[in-house]
Specification:
The complex is a heterodimer of chains A (788) and B (159). With 788 residues, chain A is α+β, with helices and mostly antiparallel strands. Chain A has 20 helices and 30 strands. In chain A, helix 14 runs parallel beside helix 15 and helix 17 crosses helix 18. The N terminus and C terminus of chain A are likely disordered. Chain B folds into 2 domains: 77 residues, Ubiquitin-like (UB roll) (Roll); 70 residues, Orthogonal Bundle (DNA polymerase, domain 1). Classes of the chains: A alpha+beta (788), B alpha+beta (159).
Chain lengths: 788, 159
């Protein structure tokens, strides 16, 4: 069941229209990077060890091979932060003498076919003198730990601390102090399309077109050109259909730099398609964070103070453009979540190890901090002897704007309202009765609630505050009605599954009176779209939507002025609808198509009072907004096997105005599924030598239809001034709340054992280990008894 | 590895005479030798199901079959689902129910679902979810894929 509070049907915004993206994708006419033919195919020779020094590389006679020796003029990938004790480290395009993680590219071979390139790569011999690898962040923090980068003083690459004045005075007043020591293990975002790149040199212009699976085409162009030392005008970057990204395709792949360099060298086309093993071991990883959190509560269960220590294992290099600070620093700023707490003292560190570099993944640190904070709230509820939701009720923010202890300003939201909505919809009282009945029958049902905020749509000031050299923020839209009367919106965002072509067309349609089917949204091509930052961080609907609205308002004003001339009526008496300008209350009208033609071909009729052409630009760079939600998981845990059965999942979400309910719901569904994978299944595991044990999809386990239960959605639409479209963005929310809700439900199911599962994923092995350690498992299980 | 064999792949009713090494997978042959790139490759080890096609009516992971094994057999891919401009009920249902987002896994899901429903039009809901668990989607959380396949199943039974 899906319940919406709005969607009148009188405008395009608020309606679940079919996606304009879909016809090509369901008929096999989508165009993905790996579909393109190329003259040369590249295969990377990757390190089989986690740490060491390259002694020798031997290639078969006559093989086309590139090593670091050929790339001495290329700069390393070296993103910058000016704050938080950031230590800049460089990542060479191919390992330059030293290997720092298993899977790092050591050489690139090329041949006329993929198969031949793979055969040659297999014959390349690499001698590496192995060093002692650092895999766990705790080991990397040790005083005498070896250094992942020899030119640094220690392995802590970024460190931030926020402490509110008078913290210790508040702490002393605590009635109860509760503690959580939690880990979220390493994941891989696992888009179904792994990465791929295709670089083609054009002999007549000397330009290269790089087609690749990026979420950030313009940033890719800037980065590649900076590294190669060439003008940006010599490179076109195209993101065609991209098969999911979730953050993994946001960071610069060194492989793309190599492809452009090689296409220029060979004056030809070169391509690389990442295989799944490469993707799992060497693309980008995510999470791997350890959070220790203490909360001081007063006698009524009100949270007074939070003290935390966050350690993020960021791998061997710092990702471009966000830097590896993105996860630990966002965790630092947003750890207090949606709760009113005035005293805060937290340290957050990013630590280098000999593991695959980290990049942002859907939710960026908030799935982890929400999980940890909600564990704290659940533990406190148990100590105070109240429902976890009651404890949250006493602590959730409810007056807006609310300035947090870390200085974030929360705009209007519905933190309590969404939770009450969720409690009612799931019928908490009825569940508790059912839970008791089941428990009496030896079954362990549990329910878990997670309330959280999702910071979205923030512009450049928010990134500047982090000290980023590159401050992604604004988005620009060029909106044109061409002489044919069709509309083209060229955007800097780069959607890859979010349905933005449809949602933006709905926003524009309402403004200019032209139906969405005549509005073509163009993205993912640096030759066609304005400089922009791509699609990530739940931002595109807010930012590109806002820029689209601003541009459409200008086009609307111009159309009304033109219609006023042609219809001899005042602009305020004219409405734009279904492709025409109508004088309200009369039968006089003129089509927008004919006005568009006139704007280019018959400008004389406007007597110089209207500029020729029909193109307007909108740029939007807002301060940001906060969506919010309450997630509820209902589970059953089998104490014999440790298996968790997801019975039901419910979301009460507030993402402001919903532009297309169908698309919005789809975003939440997908996020929740990834969150369930985070909570139960997905873990990249290294052995002690730094070799990855989970290099196939049979070992690293994204959920299937079996693991995802029915997801019930409810929406509240709080409209705030922080987004000019009133839409707040919701791409990440599903993934942020679900892990916390699932873990909470598991702990609720197992409350009688006096254990606390504080590690994700909560695999059967981990749950069984905790149950065994509790010493409270039944001595003889009923079924075992029967067998005996 | 240079020994090649002449084979004929019949894809959506069209014959493709190609020369392939014995190690050539059906997925690579369909995409690279026959130019039908609607079939996608997601893992190359038979887990994700993105490359699912129908071989003699049966859903097959084309990354796990050699091209030579499909010689002379009837292969159907996503490009052959629509009848001219008339989309297959499964394609329509995926659009109407928002059963796709990025669209990368979609061809595999479409072929899996069509293959199963053609063989077993009255499949139980439980079995349907079981069958659909053989493919991976990272975007949709499966809710709308299941909805779409159920809707198409009703329409396919009626036609």
């Amino acid at each position: 069941m899906t319940v919406h509070t709005k969607g009148s049907g009188t405008t395009w915004v608020g309606r679940s229209i079919r996606r304009l993206e879909d016809p090509a994708l369901v008929t096999g006419r989508g165009r993905f990077t790996a579909d393109m033919p190329a003259t040369h195919w590249v295969r990377f020779v990757r390190s089989s060890v986690a740490a060491g020094t390259i002694e020798n590389i031997t290639a078969p006679e006559g093989a086309g091979i590139v090593t670091a020796k050929d790339l001495t003029k290329l700069k390393p990938i070296r993103p910058m932060l000016s704050k938080f004790n950031y230590v800049a480290v460089g990542q060479p395009i191919l390992a330059d003498g030293v290997v720092r993680f298993t899977g790092e590219s050591i050489a690139a071979v090329y041949a006329p076919s993929k198969d031949q390139a793979e055969d040659i790569a297999d014959q390349v011999e690499v001698e590496i003198s192995e060093g002692a690898p650092l895999i766990d962040a705790t080991d990397a923090l040790a005083e005498d730990a070896p250094l992942v980068h020899a030119d640094t003083k220690h392995n802590v690459i970024v460190e931030g601390r926020i402490a509110t004045p008078g913290f210790s005075d508040v702490w002393k007043t605590a009635h109860k102090v509760l503690r959580v020591d939690a880990r979220s293990r390493r994941q891989n975002a696992t888009p179904m399309e792994a990465r791929a790149g295709h670089a083609a040199y054009d002999g007549s212009t000397g330009r290269v077109t790089l087609t690749c699976t990026t979420q950030m085409p313009h940033l890719t162009r800037t980065a590649v050109c900076d590294i190669l030392g060439i003008p940006e005008s010599d490179l076109r970057v195209v993101a065609p259909d991209v098969g999911g990204g979730f953050g993994q395709k946001m960071s610069l792949a060194p492989e793309y730099v190599l492809l452009v360099w090689l296409a220029r060298k060979l004056r030809s086309s070169v391509a690389w398609t990442e295989d799944r093993r490469e993707n799992l071991i060497a693309s980008f990883h995510s999470r791997d964070q350890h959070v220790q959190l203490e909360g001081a509560f007063d006698a009524k269960g009100k949270l007074l103070a939070l003290r935390g220590d966050i350690v993020a294992n960021i791998g061997a290099y710092s990702c471009f453009p966000t830097t590896c600070g993105v996860e630990p620093l966002m965790a630092l700023a947003e750890l207090p979540g949606p709760y009113d707490v005035r005293a805060y003292d937290c340290r957050s560190r990013g630590v280098m190890t000999n593991t695959c570099p980290m990049a942002p993944y859907r939710g960026v640190s908030r799935p982890v901090i929400t999980f940890v904070l909600e564990r704290l709230m659940d533990k406190a509820a148990a100590v105070f002897g109240i429902e976890p939701t009651e404890l949250r009720r006493r602590n959730l923010i409810d007056k807006f704007p609310y300035t947090s202890a870390t200085g974030l300003v929360f705009d209007d939201g519905s933190y309590k309202e969404t939770m009450e909505m969720a409690i009612k919809a799931i019928d908490l009282d009825a569940f508790r009765k059912r839970q008791k009945t089941a428990r009496d029958a030896g079954r362990y049902l549990g329910i878990g609630f997670a309330t959280f905020s999702e910071r979205t749509g923030y512009g450049s000031p928010a990134f500047a505050a982090r000290g980023m050299e590159i401050t992604p923020g604004f988005e620009t839209v060029y909106l044109t009605i061409d002489p044919s009367g069709f509309v083209e919106a060229r955007i800097g965002s780069s959607p890859h599954g979010q349905g933005l072509r449809t949602s933006l067309a709905q926003i524009i349609a309402d403004e200019i009176g032209i139906d969405p089917e005549f509005i073509k949204v163009v993205h993912g091509d640096t030759d066609r779209s304005p400089y922009g930052w791509g699609t990530f961080a739940s931002r595109s609907l807010v930012l590109s939507g806002g820029a689209s609205l601003l541009a459409a308002q200008k086009i609307r004003a111009k159309l009304l002025k033109m219609a006023s001339h042609l219809l001899e009526a005042a602009p305020e008496d004219i409405k734009l609808q279904s492709g025409s300008a109508h004088v309200i209350g009369t039968d006089r009208s003129v089509t927008i198509a004919s006005m568009a033609r006139a704007a280019y071909h018959q400008t004389h009729i406007f007597k110089g009072e209207i500029e020729p052409g029909l193109t307007e630009t909108g740029t939007y760079d807002p301060s940001g907004t906060f969506s919010n939600a309450c997630h509820v998981a209902v589970v059953e845990v089998d104490i014999e096997t440790g298996r968790v059965e997801m019975e039901k999942f419910l979301v009460a979400e507030d993402a402001g105005l919903i532009i297309n309910p169908m698309i919005a719901d789809g975003q939440v569904h997908g996020g929740v599924a990834q969150g369930i994978g985070n909570a139960l299944l997905e873990e990249i595991i290294y052995d002690e030598t730094g070799n990855i044990l989970t290099s196939t999809l049979a070992d690293f386990l994204p959920p299937t239809t079996h693991e995802i239960p029915e997801i019930e959605l409810h929406h509240i639409e709080t409209l705030t001034g922080n987004s000019i479209t009133k839409a707040k963005g919701l791409g990440e929310g599903g993934a942020i709340g679900a892990p916390a809700a699932v873990i909470s439900a598991i702990n609720d199911a197992l409350s009688s054992f006096g254990i606390s599962i504080d590690e994700m994923p909560a695999t059967p092995q981990r749950i069984r280990a905790a149950l065994r350690a509790s010493g409270k498992l039944p001595g003889k299980l009923p079924s075992m008894g029967r067998l005996a | 590895m240079s020994d090649k064999t002449d084979i004929t792949l019949t894809i959506n009713g069209h014959s493709h005479a190609i020369r392939v090494e014995s190690r050539r997978t059906l997925a690579d042959a369909i995409r690279e030798d026959c130019g039908q790139t609607g079939t996608h490759i997601g893992c190359e080890h038979g887990v994700c199901g993105a490359c699912t096609v129908l071989v003699n009516g049966e859903p097959v992971r084309s990354c796990l079959m050699f091209a030579q094994q499909a010689d002379g057999k009837e292969i159907r891919t996503v490009e052959g689902l629509a009848d001219g401009d008339e989309m297959h009920p499964m394609q329509r249902a995926f659009m109407e129910n928002h059963g796709l987002q990025c669209g990368f896994c979609t061809p595999g899901f479409l072929m899996l679902a069509v293959g199963v429903l053609e063989r077993e039009p009255d499949i139980s809901d439980h079995d349907l979810i079981d069958v659909l668990s053989s493919n991976l989607c990272r975007c949709t959380g499966y809710q709308n894929i299941i909805k779409a396949v159920r809707a198409a199943a009703v329409e396919m039974r009626q036609s």
